[in-house]
TrEMBL record:
It comes from Parabacteroides goldsteinii DSM 19448 = WAL 12034. This is Thioredoxin domain-containing protein. It holds the Pfam family Redoxin. Residues 313-471 form the Thioredoxin domain. GO terms for molecular function: oxidoreductase activity. One of its GO terms (biological process) is cytochrome complex assembly.
Length: 475
């Protein structure tokens, strides 16, 4: 009889678990091999490199089932960088059809998902002030006008939510996210005014009010830009209110400075989250900052049971290796930085008579570093072609030590040149667009020392690069 009761209990428990599964079907407009997802909560660091991946079914459709006990928001990211959010509840069934790069919802939480879509549109409005000169607030220097526009936008969104058939808890939580979005927008505007020396006494009074933002409010941790917003809050207070100079901070210990500032106002899980985000942000950006391993050790001591330790640990070891890598290799040649080099033609002059494959990069550029993983395969494939590999860094002179360490860390066999100011300006002018130069950029130089292919294929497209090199060799 006891055995029968045990079996019945297990069956009931299993059925209960099945009833707590939220099911999501995603039908993409075009083929996607995988889709990335992550819960939006204080248990997950908001970096897409930490998202889980779901593979498509043979018919191209995605089926995601997740255990859900309480309502939660799920962040989704497609292969073609389309991002959106979905509201999941216990035993919910929802479908998303993607058309013209827009999600269309149906199912249990349709109204909630439509609300999240409206919030995301407004969030993009808040973010775009950083990169769009056409943003309606970009040229607004009047505090009164700025505040009026922002308050109206925020009020419209809150009114929209309250007019929908959604729960009060949903409105409460999303109101916190919306407040984060518009406070973040204010911080971006302040930094823009500061850089253009347009901050007035009126703005200063408002800044002091906005800096009192409550980072200890639990719902605010779900804001995807929480750590970035905290960073801005800290720098605005330090440089604008306290009137410090950038020279007051050791540039090699910027993360230590930020953490010390965070500790003044953050405690408990809020400090744990901000601290872990600070460390992972450096990892995510591939900055290899010298103070990060020490901050990680302190984090482990302060929060020995933190779930974030398992995420941070493998990456920290890479940073330790980076700062202890020996700067010696027979196949790596560091060329002297020649400040009188005027243009690319002069830079490649020593290699006249050879085909040169140039990699323009910078230590701050994550995509540049990702390409390094394909360098060895490319060189193996072109061994018999006598190709010169020239890496030209656009780093500032003060980054020379970091540049050299990165060359040896990634074992980039070939010739390496750190562009002087004159050469860098020439590259931006001749290869860029309106003063901007997208990197990584790859160029093939012919045997005559002239550019043969200005926009050459990247190393991750091995067949195309080899084809282009053969084409230039035969000319």
């Amino acid at each position: 009889m006891k055995r029968l009761y045990y079996i019945l209990f297990c069956l009931l428990f299993f059925c209960q678990l099945r009833g707590q599964q939220a099911t999501l079907i995603i039908i993409p407009e075009k083929e996607n091999k995988g889709i990335n997802y992550q819960f939006s909560d204080s248990e997950h660091l908001p970096f897409y490199t930490l998202f889980q991946t779901k593979q498509a079914e043979p018919n191209g459709v995605f089926h995601i089932s997740l255990p859900v006990q309480q309502p939660v928001v799920l962040n989704l990211l497609t292969e073609d960088r389309l991002s959106f959010r979905v509201y999941l509840t216990k035993d919910s069934h929802d479908t998303i059809r993607i058309r013209n790069n827009q999600p269309f919802f149906s199912g249990t939480n349709t109204i909630y998902n439509q609300c999240l879509q409206e919030i995301q549109k407004t969030e993009e409005y808040c973010h775009s002030i950083s990169y769009s000169k056409h943003h309606e607030l970009h040229a607004v220097d009047s505090l009164k006008e700025f505040t009026q526009i922002v308050n109206n936008k925020q009020a419209e969104l809150i009114t929209f939510l309250k007019g929908q058939n959604v729960s009060s808890d949903f409105i409460h939580n999303q109101s916190h996210i919306i407040n984060c979005m518009f406070t973040h927008l204010f911080y971006k505007k302040i930094l823009n005014l500061y850089n253009n020396r347009k901050i007035t006494d009126e703005w200063l009074k408002e800044i002091k009010k906005q800096l009192s933002f409550d980072f200890q409010e639990g719902a605010n941790l779900c804001y995807s830009e929480y750590e970035r917003m905290l960073y801005m809050n800290t720098t605005i207070n330090y440089f604008i209110i306290e009137k410090h100079s950038p020279q007051d901070i050791d540039r090699d210990k910027i993360n230590t400075f930020l953490l010390n500032e965070y500790k003044k106002k953050r405690t408990g899980k809020y400090l744990e989250y901000a601290w872990a985000s600070l460390i992972y942000n450096d990892i995510f950006q591939r900055d290899f900052s010298e103070d990060i391993p020490s901050l990680y050790d302190q984090f482990c001591s302060e929060f020995p049971q933190s779930e974030f330790i398992g995420i941070l640990s493998p990456e920290i070891e890479k940073i330790r290796q980076f700062h202890h890598i020996p700067e010696t290799s027979n196949n790596i040649t560091i060329l002297p930085t020649d400040t009188i080099l005027k243009n690319l033609e002069e830079a490649v002059h020593p290699f006249i008579g050879k085909i040169v494959y140039i990699d323009l990069w910078g230590t701050w550029c994550g995509p540049c570093q990702k390409m390094f993983a394909y360098s060895k395969a490319l060189k193996n494939a072109t061994k018999k072609m006598d190709i010169i590999y020239l890496y030209i860094s656009l780093d500032r002179p003060e980054n020379r030590d970091k540049w050299k360490k990165m060359v040896y860390y990634y074992k980039l066999e070939g010739y390496h040149l750190q562009a002087g100011i004159t050469l860098a300006k020439s590259l931006y002018a001749s290869l860029g667009n309106k003063g901007m130069l997208a990197i990584p950029q790859f160029i093939i130089i012919g045997k005559d020392g002239k550019i043969a292919i200005e926009k050459a294929a990247a190393p991750d497209n091995l067949e195309k690069v080899v084809e282009q090199l053969k084409q230039v060799s035969n000319e």
